[in-house]
Amino acid sequence: MNNLPITHFSDSPFGTKIKSEDIAETLCFFDDWEDRYRYIIDLGKELPTLPVSFKTDENLIVGCQSQVWLVCEYDAKNNLLLMAVDSEAQIVKGLAGIVLSAFNKKTPQEVTDFNIEAFFTDIDLFSHLSSMRGNGLRAMVKKILYLAKRC
């Protein structure tokens, strides 16, 4: 965890305004994956930009094809995990947004209880990603679950 101000993460719509069930419903609306990719890229545009000072080796997700930084803070007062993520690749930002829709602004217990693999299967995500992108997504999830278990 980082010693960051809790308010830094409060403006992200992921986990509150943009929820995993909303994303699943929207993705199912599209007939082809080209439209779904556009939607995923648009999701990435909703992510607040991570300040350069947070783009450190400590926050870098190991195993991603593109550089991805994840910052997580535990709000003990409200028992919530607050997260921010950024990448230079637009599609990766969108994929990170999908992950945050399930985990951001949730309790550590909610994070560990959520079956993210079933969610990915429901939206048919991994069959349309390269193995490198899929591995990177799983590395991000693994780090979030690790951090949630430490709270």
Short description:
The chain is mostly helical. The protein has helices spanning 20-29, 33-45, 90-103, 108-113, 116-122, 131-149; strands at 68-75, 80-87. This is Fe-S metabolism associated domain-containing protein.
Give the rounded overall mean pLDDT.
92
CATH topology: Sufe protein. Chain: A
Q: Which ranges are low-confidence, i.e. pLDDT below 50, for 5 or more consecutive residues?
A: none
Q: How much is the radius of gyration in Å?
A: 14 Å
Q: How would you characterize this protein structure?
A:
The chain has a single domain, classed as Alpha-Beta Complex (Sufe protein. Chain: A). The model has no long low-confidence stretch (mean pLDDT 92). The chain has helices at 20-29, 33-45, 90-103, 108-113, 116-122, 131-149; strands at residues 68-75, 80-87. The protein is built from six helices and two strands. Helix content is 46%, strand content 11%. The termini are close together. It is mainly α. It is globular and about 45 Å long. α2 packs across α3 (90-103). The chain has a two-stranded antiparallel ribbon. Pfam families: SufE. InterPro entries: Fe-S_metab-assoc_dom (IPR003808). Belongs to the SufE family.
Topology:
Blueprint: H1 20-29, H2 33-45, E1 68-75, E2 80-87, H3 90-103, H4 108-113, H5 116-122, H6 131-149
Antiparallel strand pairs: 1-2
Helix pairs in contact: 2-3, 3-6
